[in-house]
Known about the structure:
The complex is a heterodimer of chains A (291) and B (427).
Chain A: H1 2-26, H2 29-32, H3 43-54, H4 69-75, H5 110-118, H6 120-123, H7 137-149, H8 152-175, H9 178-185, H10 188-191, H11 200-218, H12 242-247, H13 250-259, H14 275-285
Chain B: H1 20-52, H2 59-81, H3 95-117, H4 126-147, H5 156-191, H6 198-211, H7 227-239, H8 241-255, H9 272-300, H10 305-308, H11 312-342, H12 348-382, H13 386-392, H14 394-426
Amino acid sequence: MRALSIAAGVAALVLAAIAVTVLLPMGDPSLYQPSPGVKPLNELEEMGRQVYIREGCWYCHTQQVRNLSMDVQYYGRVSSPGEYAYDSPVLLGTERTGPDLARIGGVYTDDWHLAHFINPRYVVPASIMPSFSYLSDDELEALIAYVQSLGGEEARRKAEMQRRMKQAMLEAQRLGIEEEMMQARVPASYRGLENPLAGREAVLVGKRLFAFYCRGCHGSAGAGDGPAARYLNPRPANFTSAEFMGSVEDGRLYYSILNGVPGTAMHPFKARLTEQEVWSLVAYLRTLQEE
Amino acid sequence: MLAVKFVYPDFLSGYAWLQFGRLRPVHVTLAAFGWLSMVQVAMAYYAVPRLAKRELYSERLARLSVLLWNLFILLAAATLLAGMTQGREYAELVYPLDLLFLLLLGVVAYNLVRTVLARREEKLYVSLWYFLAALVWMPVVYFVGNAMWAGGALYGVNDAIVNWFYGHNILGLWFTPLGVGAAYYLLPKLVRKPLYSHRLSLLGFWTLGLFYPWVGTHHLIFGPVPVWAQTVAIAASVAMLLPVLAVTVNFWKTIEGRWHLLSQAEQGRRFAQSDCTALKFLVLGGVWYLLTCLQGPFQALRAVQPYVHFTNWVVAHAHLALLGAFSFWGFACIYYVMPRLTGKELSPRLARAHFYLLTLGLSGFVASLTIAGLIQGSSWQAGVAFVKVVAALKPYLIVRLASAALMVASVYLFLYAFFSSLRGVQR
């Protein structure tokens, strides 16, 4: 019968394709065995992963660093199949409306993520990521734990380090030795640097950059009271305070913007800003102090 | 037939950024399994008996499938909005719904295959080949993608490979054969001329079956899957040019000499106005089809991938295929079939407005997203800060929104025309 032989023919074609493209890779141990050091998620992280799936984060975020220099430059080490061995469903993703998250763990502090999930525009004014303020506190905690685990052991170590640094900062605040600690952090070679840029033009460039990157935390006027500030501890620096601005050198401002302050929501801007731009920001910050 | 349109207004609803992550699967599922699949299957129900020169094997089963299908869509939308998802693209639905879909697919396939087997026409027209193949392929593809591993027993990279085998093949082995089959059915009727070459259409058919099932992994190029698997997928993607050109040449040659039918309706023929609209949709759908299918192999190349993958370019590509090619063909089917079922044409004025608004909207939509995609790709390549790229896309996203609004408006016009023509019939 002609119709039946067509049916059999097309069935054979698709089965052949399944055998080679689907079943063959399944026999390859390097595709399903965990890489050394890759561990299953703990309970809290797993719960966060479920939230991640349910809320469709994976439509906007990939979790794969491809073997391309552009990916490595943005996100770090290339992903290997063994890293996904415990993932079901696997969340490789197909679209980067937002950045890849495969190596995001430990890059930011927990409180950065909290403020960001409550409303991404609090932290990143130009963001188009949806707000997840409707999640419960437990769900937010789990989601943060999950995001901080992305990138494996290395990420967990970095996130743990952030938490320890935060405790140290808060302890120093309590003892009133915070300033000493902040100063000690900055290498002497930076502290003496002078701003090579000055004048109106640099200030205007700095002002624009500040509105684009910084105002969510530091506030539009730089008073440390942006919409994200109330979720952050330690709180953002207040550039209108004469006391604070009087005690820090340009070199330290420059160093902190480039490298961030570990343990706080102030993350490094090295990858996003050129040295020129950072100096423009420093010039702008100097204009904010109230008399 | 009617059931098709109940889901229609939702077709383009997915553009709110608000809770985007929940809406997006609803948008995709309704567009793919609500609108497109239902129109295409409706067309198969219409065309298969006519090509087989006998009535449908079972009217009762057909009614059952319509009922099940609407139930399925309703449950699908409800579960997705409630956040119940498997977390696999195009395969989000929870396991029981997967089984329901397989069941109703089985009912449709059984009914149509029995009709073909008992046909009174010796010759098997190429549309029947395509319909038959789709009905064999889809259950297999859906089973492998959704049911074989009992909703989640797959881990890691293999999960992605299976997902993309499935994801791309609902396009390649379901929408494509159903759509091309319908187009092959309509074209000779609309231009009143036999198909240019039966042999060429069969070449297109077998090469489609030969190459399409192999392309899925091209979604993972440079990703954590074996390089040989990527290469196979790229090669198959390029080979896809063959069936596409076969279809295009065949269409072109068939229409040759009848181009005037596009702009003016044939005098004195029944339903000439409506057929003219149908032909417009059919031909422009063919153009979109060619464009998408030229894009496909191009973007699968390793040299192009870094610039387009993960960007809005791909979103444009997907809409060009589903909304351009296959939806345009779907509308062609409706404009052709409706008058023949109800004896009444849809308002020609509204039909024209529908056509031009939709075309304008789609063009703006695809153009803005394609440009946005190229900006993303080249900026990332140059290492521009990610948020800066996000901010730079804003104007394009606004154009996209406006275009989407045009398309929604056109679809409401269509719905209005559609239902008012129905009301006339009941009276």
